[in-house]
Design goal:
The protein has 476 residues and is α+β, with helices and mostly antiparallel strands. It folds into two domains: 327 residues, 3-Layer(aba) Sandwich (Beta-lactamase), CATH 3.40.710.10; 126 residues, Lipocalin (Beta Barrel), CATH 2.40.128.20. Helices cover 24% and strands 25% of the residues. The strands form four sheets. A nine-stranded mixed beta barrel has the order 12-13-14-15-17-18-19-20-21. The protein has a six-stranded antiparallel sheet with strand order 2-1-11-10-9-8, sandwiched between helices. A hairpin with a 4-residue loop joins strand 10 and strand 11. Helix 1 runs antiparallel to helix 10 and helix 2 packs across helix 7.
Length: 476
């Protein structure tokens, strides 16, 4: 296995100030960046991890998973187990309706890779309790396949099911055995499964940012690693070039550059992987560069585009310019990099006392039966206790700092911070650091005898109970 070479930005022609400018710009725009990794001219030159995220933290990569599914499909094709122009129904007769629509019958594996399926969207999201793969075949087609780009996550999921059916192995297990172990992909990485035991090939990858960087290097080198061709070059040449025009259906600038086989095209001749919330692997042959980001931009309008703009605007124009003397400043910035905790204003002691207590819901049928707040004696930590259909839950948070714990009923790790506003409202920010990289925010306004709380979740099908208003009165 080839060992990565590590160096400083200036050793690969990247001024330290350019990297620093990129990070500061995203911070000023309140974009929740979790990591930024840069590789150029044979060296890893930047590793930036924003607390509570760390180097070895597994991160949900969302639709970057699609690119890994594509890599597995390419291996099947290279082994002669499938043909890219095979009709997909050939491999899933057990799921076909009694009468097969001609558009479904004509859809090929290549159509699915290019996001030119016969569906206008993700079929399994219509009912998550029913077989996700089967939904792809029994949902009535919307249009002729092989024509127009239409983003369909169920397509990638079905392709993943094809890989697992033909290999008898889980998606990531198959890829690790074929090539990912060769590049040092982490042993702890995995792909979440759907309720029916199939790896979620469209969005389930849990991996480290360094896993993505190593994969990006493999892509940049067209499948060569450690002096050997460990992945078929012919497939990558097809997969990462533009196969589908996307300008007609996408709004953000970099989403309009085109699509390959589950790989995106980006500006400046770059290609790569793209996951919801700001997960990116940018492979840039002209610049000899790979850039990886992880983030949670779901609460930031246009946040994913802001991540790319920061990289392209702050770093690309300065490549191969002389070092600007900011190497020490960059090192210092990276050493204290953290997601900003909630600001905690000083308020009268009476406000703390008014907030403490248990509040019963005044609404019938709501998810939360009650909520209660309490604080440590030194006022450095707080607790939100609540009662719901699942039982009694407790959320710990630091006042003006982050506190890490496990989310009740979900079994997922989180970091939480709280603080008072000048108006006496309690703000709580909860960053999920487990399988669903999202956030929950709570604003609690206290008044004599009662509480009004507003909650917002950025989760996809999770933590959605933390949405909307809770009205409570002091429990007598």
């Amino acid at each position: 296995m080839e060992e990565l070479v590590f160096g400083s930005p200036k050793e690969s022609g990247v001024p330290s100030g350019a990297v620093l400018s990129c990070l500061k710009r995203l911070a000023e725009q309140n974009v929740p960046l979790h990591s930024l990794l840069l590789y150029r001219k044979g060296k890893v030159i930047t590793e930036a991890y924003s607390f509570p995220y760390e180097k070895h933290s597994l991160h949900r990569m969302y639709s970057i998973t699609k690119s890994f599914t594509s890599l597995a499909v390419g291996l099947l094709a290279d082994k002669g187990l499938i043909g890219l122009d095979d009709p997909v129904i050939k491999y899933f007769e057990e799921y076909l309706p009694q009468t097969v629509h001609p558009w479904l019958a004509s859809m090929t594996i290549r159509d699915m890779l290019e996001m030119k399926t016969c569906h206008e969207g993700t079929t399994y999201k219509k009912d998550l309790t029913k077989n996700w793969v089967e939904s792809f075949f029994i949902t009535e087609p919307d249009h002729r396949p092989g024509t127009i780009f239409s983003y369909d996550t169920s397509s990638a999921h079905t392709l993943c099911a094809l890989v697992e059916k033909l290999t008898g192995m889980e998606l990531l297990e198959f890829l690790k055995g074929e090539c990912l172990n060769e590049i040092g992909f982490s042993a702890e990485s995995y792909v979440k499964k759907d309720p029916f035991g199939v790896s979620i090939g469209g969005s389930g990858l849990m991996a480290t940012p360094m896993d993505l960087l190593k994969t990006g290097i493999l892509l940049l080198r067209q499948g060569e690693y450690g002096g050997r061709q460990i992945y078929p070059k012919w497939y990558l040449e097809e997969a990462v070039k533009c196969q589908t025009q996307t300008a007609g259906s996408r709004n953000c600038e970099d989403e309009r550059q085109g699509y390959g086989y589950q790989f995106w095209q980006f500006r400046h001749g770059c290609f790569g992987c793209y996951g919801m919330g700001g997960q990116f692997v940018l492979c840039c042959p002209q610049q000899e560069l790979v850039c990886v980001t992880t983030a949670d931009t779901l609460a930031v309008t246009g946040g994913h585009q802001q991540v790319l703009d920061a990289v392209f605007d702050c770093i690309f124009p300065y490549l191969d310019m002389e070092e600007d003397g900011k190497e020490g400043e960059l090192e210092e910035y990276l050493a204290r990099l953290s997601m900003p905790p909630v600001e905690n204003k000083k308020i009268p002691a009476s406000a703390w006392e008014k907030a403490e207590g248990l509040y019963e819901s005044v609404k019938e049928g709501g998810y939360f039966k009650n909520m209660g707040f309490s604080f440590s004696e030194d006022k450095s930590r707080g607790r939100l206790r609540y009662s719901c259909e699942q039982g009694e839950g407790v959320l710990e948070f630091g006042m003006g700092v982050w506190v890490c714990s496990e989310f009740p009923f979900y079994g997922q790790s989180y970091a939480a911070s709280g603080g008072w506003t000048e108006d006496g409202d309690l703000m709580i920010k909860i960053q999920i650091t487990g399988e669903d990289s999202s956030s929950v925010s709570i604003q609690a306004a206290f008044f004599e005898g009662g509480l009004t709380a507003f909650m917002k979740s950025t989760g996809e099908n999770v933590f959605l109970e933390f949405s909307g208003f809770f009205e409570g009165k002091v429990k007598s």
